């Protein structure tokens, strides 16, 4: 699987909130808003509701979906990111990008951190 194009990394990584839909039962689920962060040449999302997030459970089961950054849509694969060093970098990226929000602390909580998904272009 090829990596992200530079333009896509900038577009998606700089967007405050993307929409995520999951391929389930042959169709896309209803899109939900999610925060996205960029670490190096990779994009990551987490479930604010932890494992209780329906979109996260569907993404884990399916492994495929679509994201929207503004009007631009991209098909993606969802891959669990469990490396603690990378997750530390993702925590820092969430803090840098969303630290102004009262919800930022929740995005680096241990339960939410276990829901880290890398977005790969399909």
Automatic annotation (TrEMBL):
Q: Which branch of life, at top level?
A: Bacteria
Name this protein carries in UniProt: DUF2255 family protein
* InterPro entries xrefs: UCP028498 (IPR016888)
Species this chain originates from: Chloroflexus islandicus
Pfam families according to UniProt: DUF2255
